Amino acid sequence: MAVIYQKELAIKHRCDVCVVGAGPAGIAAAIAAARQGQSVMLFESLAMPGGMSTAALVPVLMPWTDGDNVLCGGIGKEIIDRAQATGAMRGGAIYAERLKRLYEDMLLEAGVVISYTTKLIDVIMRDKHIDLAIFNAKSGTFAVKAQRYVDASGDGDLAVMAGAPYEIGDAQGRMMPGTLCSLWAGVDWHEFRLGGAFSHNDDNMLALLRKAVADGMLSQDDYHLTGMTKTSDNVVTGNLSHCFGINPLDELSMTAKLIENRRVCAEYERFFRTSIRGFANAEIAATGAVMGVRESRRITGDYVLNADDYQKRATFPDEIGRYNFGIDIHPAEPGGDASLAEHKKQYIGQHYRRGESYGIPYRVLCPQQVENVLCAGRCVSTDRAVMASLRVIPGCWITGMAAGTAAAMSIAQDCTPRALPARTLQQQLKRDGAFLPNFNV
């Protein structure tokens, strides 16, 4: 059964660039566009910035250098430098509460207008352009009119609403599991390190996990335990466990899996307290405000970055950055040792050597069939293999900075983002610190 629902909406906000999603990609896009002199509004459905890096409690950065060069140069490097100085990060470990404040400081310094608890619900199109984006918040439902829109939603919501094509999951439509990360108090980290059981790559931990499953202490036959990270002097963050069978585009699936994984986290709390040295007095202080989602829609752009490009360490004439994280595809279903072996097969051996990386072409930010939208972050145009590399935080900073810069520059040059000359964009990105070794200004 369907109903027709009509309502007159006010155009509540006007801006040059409207960014949807305040995860790492959206933050970088908003800052970049604002620093180019455009008025920018950033809309986020949650009550904080940072997305996976804060609300989901993802505890660590994946590689941000190739061993010689900072790959997320510019805004990404600035975030890392300021995070190290403020304690929002220690090395690659993320202190989520401090990182939220750092993100907000940088957004406000750039002049970005932020609107939390504000959810995109629709768009109104004019030809192949988004004319208005429709949002809902406590004040009601309203429209936002902008010249350019950046989809940093993670799920590609904005681009899909505008009519862009997309792919999702593997050949059967299955997606990688999510993870409900957690904050732990009362851990004796020194004792834990002496215990010698750290992650799924450790034989001691594997033996303990197998026994816990056999004894019924753990209900899920999953030995891919990413492990624990010391994220402050007093807090440890757990990147566990897998949430199999999740559909991040279905609210009932997300709800059921959040409920299930809070229960699974309690199982792991008992397991760690009774089985792992240093955790006798530990307890989970909080689980993530949102599920850590690894995979959702991949918007189809003017080019699809693919596994062959990854293997070739490809270079592109229009590249806006380079990256090097491994192809990290987590098995879609639990399966004990077999699933763990499958993950290692996908991931181990994919590492680059020092100084190696693959190029990211500007075309992957430009969704097909839409003219005034750019994508950034997990939803950019890749195949599944490269998405499993580029989806992580430094990769999101790279594509976000490029998308925000391109959005602002296309306004200044009175052209669509697709028509913006790549060389002009590259010149500005390089001036702003982006790592573009194959481009000379």
UniProtKB/TrEMBL annotation:
Transmembrane segments: none
MF (Gene Ontology): 4 iron, 4 sulfur cluster binding; metal ion binding; oxidoreductase activity
Domain of life (superkingdom): Bacteria
Pfam family, one: FAD_oxidored
Gene3D superfamilies: FAD/NAD(P)-binding domain (3.50.50.60)
UniProt keyword terms in alphabetical order: 4Fe-4S, Iron, Iron-sulfur, Metal-binding, Oxidoreductase
UniProt protein name: FAD-dependent oxidoreductase
